[in-house]
Amino acid sequence: MKIAVAGKGGSGKTLLAGSLAFLFARAGHTTLALDADSAPNLAFLLGLSPREADAIIPVSKNADLIAAKTGTSYPGVYALNFSVNDIVTKYAVPTPAGPHLLVMGTVTSMGAGCTCPANSVVRALLRHLLVEHREVVILDMEAGVEHIGRGTAENVDVMLVVSDAHRQSLAIAGKIAQMARDAGIPRVELVGNRIQDPAQDRVIRDFARSRNLPVPGMIPFDPTVTRAGVAGEAVAALKGSAALDAIAGILSETSREMADQEEHP
User: Fold this and answer.
1) Going by C-beta distance under 8 Å and a sequence separation of 6 or more, which residues neighbour residue 15?
2) Which residues form the CobQ/CobB/MinD/ParA nucleotide binding domain (predicted)?
3) pTM summary value
């Protein structure tokens, strides 16, 4: 299963992505957490220390890797055909939470746009992970989805767009959802976060209904999440919390929907 998670900065998308990766790994699935955010924080949520996280070189910034994949004997000329099959094996980092983590760094357009060697490697790796990789991939994305082109996006099983009940957050969520649909992602759903009362729940569900977006679940406001963040604790510290229980429900609902879709296409 390939799940992309997107949302406005501060919406809680990294909490959802990290928790999903943790829950999949805990259930026995070989899981790869892919951080494609320009301000990567997934490492901390998966239990790596600041020192360990700082030691990770994003794929887009790994000069030795880029040179090895695209270098030629001609100055200013780089190879267009290269294999990325070994990158996960060599560069994905095991985490205390269970999943392996691969930090991509900033990614530009998957199709046209920058043709520099670094972006060529990142684009090829994303295609490989979403098209050929047979294990669970959880992708923590930027707020936009421009870097997922049609040829790759159709291989994401579902995009979960995270939003709280604030109008600005919902407006951005709506734009992201439309971009995801335009990019060819077959299933786009809205997840409410930090829900404190029935009124906020209703605002998000009404918005989702107006955009024809399924809602697989709502994540309640949970002080445990805040305390864990302040203490720098990993997602494993949320065991038994209302937020993690809600995310487990979202995972179950999304998995059930995907199974139904495969059975009745």
Assistant:
1) 45, 193, 219, 225, 235, 243
2) 3-232
3) 0.88
pLDDT, tens digit (0-9, with 9 covering 90-100), for 124-160: 887 788 777 778 999 998 766 666 665 566 678 899 9
Q: Which residue has the tokens 């009745």?
A: 264
Gap between the Cα atoms of 258 and 80, Å rounded: 35
In this structure, what DSSP letter does residue 4 have?
E
In angstroms, the CA 135 to CA 97 distance is 17
Domains of the chain: 2-263 (3.40.50.300)
Query: What gap in Å lies between CA 138 and CA 135, rounded to an integer?
Result: 10
pLDDT over threshold 70, residue 110: no
Q: Do the beta carbons of residue 23 and residue 167 sit within 8 Å?
A: no
Amino acid at 53: A
Which residue reads 């520099």 in tokens?
116
Mean pLDDT of 94-120: 73
